[in-house]
Amino acid sequence: MTNSRNGKRWILGGGAALASLVWASHAAAASAQDQEARIAKLEAAVAALQAQVADQTALKQENASLRAEDGDLRAEVETLQAQVLDLKSSTSAQIQDVRTAQAATTTSLGGGKPVLSTADGAFTFAPHGVLQFDAAQYFQDAAGNTATDLRRDGPAIGTSGIDAAHARQLKDGTLFRRARLGADGTAFKDFDYRILLDFGGAGVENAGQLYEGWVQYTGLKPLKVRLGAFSPSLGLEDQGSTNGMPFLERPGPSDTARALAGGDTRTAIQLFANGDHWFAAGAVTGRTIGVINTGTASATAQTYSDQLGLTGRIAFQPFHGYDWLIQTGVHGSYVVHPANTAGPGATGATSLASYGVRLNDTPELRVDGTKFIDTGTINARHADTIGLELAAQKRNLFLQAEYESFNVERSDAGVSNPHFYGWYVEGTWILTGEARKFNAGTAAFDAPPVDHPFKLHGGGWGAWEFGLRYSEMNLNYRAGDAGTALATTTVGGSITDGIRGGDQKIWTVGLNWYLNPIFRLMFDYEHVTIDRLSPNATAYSTPVGAQIGQSYDVIAIRSQAAF
């Protein structure tokens, strides 16, 4: 502004001096005409100076506007700089959070079992493997002439590989009972999953099939929803882990009950919930999954309609303390309709004989897969089981028992509805002082922890467990007396009313050595007694109503690796 004012003064002063000099130098000789010319020039000079003054004024105003705009721009720049700093700070914090989460993602080998997990536990992944290798020696009389040796095994079902017309010599040898590979884990915190393949078997190994495959939603705590192929909750022994069972196999009554509408590889949707001292579950079940039928006995044929069933269980602990508990419960299953295995007849109608149920069992060891007790297929509309359960634990002492009742509603007219029963009681004593672990999520008991894993030099000797069990599974209904044929009814044709499925009793003594949480050795001795009258003299090549049961002993060993 100062330069502008000085310029203006210099211009005005210079103009005045010039006008005075011109006027002084020509005043004396100027004429009237000259005066007019001089005035015109002076006026022109004044106009020029006025124009210069106007330009300077406009320039001053423009400079003031520019200075105002410059202030606004600087304010905007400062605002943007502040936003950039905030963004940098926020981005830096987010990057740090990501880096922290990445750094906190862990790989755990707790107890030798690998688990990958994010810091917040929203995602986990755990590979799962089970290997159980069994060996057994059966002690029984050698097979004799079929005319005098009347011992027989399962029903006459032709292509199953069971020879019901001869005395059975049980197979000594080995078997991979379970050979499972898979994974389970959590996704997005509220979803659990498992996929598991199994290559083990009974008598011989399977080619391999999907054993478990399910997803589970846990976001409605305490309620959980599971969908897929799995074993729905149906009793204490049913939900106990096969990796931690105190004996090589489940007791016969439990296996028979779970196979009706639950059991392994069963497709189902289950709702269940639990607290520390209670459990409740209910499921709608369908078929069991299996391999495609290739004409072999182990294949699973497609049905004309799948079985539809229901299962349920309630368990609670009315009494419990620091190192003891008592648990009781009730469970059951109901077959709404069995699978249709025969389809429509020549007239297009489906016979009620196309729907049937069958109860049977292999005697609590699978090196030889023979089934000694079997009802055969019963034409049925419905079937059900009802079970009672009881468990008690005091430190390293454990007791468990269950009773199962079976009922079948026949579809044949004029024939009574059969019913069967089974029960078992078992107890264990852990010699090294550990206690079996209670799993609140299944309301069942698993293997004990190993406080002192085995190490030959300078370590412990693992955990040792002694067990004793007695079980009975009775599949006889109106079996009649020895030497007599089963009673029949003539209503709707000649139909057999009684069922000679057999009565199986087993004593088992077991010793388990848990070397560590992964490896275990099991030693079982069994005394098995089968009481069964011949259901059909022609099919079983026996006199009418002959005793076809037997008694034998077996020693079995299992080596197990599971994670």
Give the helix proportion (percent range). Answer: 10-25%
Q: How many extended strands?
A: 27
Radius of gyration: 46 Å
- Any idea what the shape is? elongated
CATH homologous group name of the largest domain:
Porin
CATH class of the largest domain: Mainly Beta
Q: The CATH topology of the largest domain, please? A: Porin
Q: Return the domain count.
A: 2
Q: Decide which structural class fits the backbone.
A: alpha+beta
Distinct helical segment count: 5
- N-C termini distance: 89 Å
Poorly predicted parts: 1-30, 155-161, 292-298
Question: Which properties best describe this structure?
Answer:
563 residues; alpha+beta; Porin; 2 domains; two-stranded antiparallel sheet; 5 helices; 41% strand; elongated; disordered N terminus
Describe the structure.
The protein is an alpha+beta fold and 563 residues long. The protein has two domains: 2-102; 107-562, Beta Barrel (Porin). The protein has five helices and 27 strands. A 16-stranded antiparallel beta barrel has the order 3-4-5-8-9-10-11-12-13-17-18-19-22-25-26-27. It has a two-stranded antiparallel ribbon with strand order 6-7. Residues 1-30, 155-161 and 292-298 have low confidence and may be disordered.
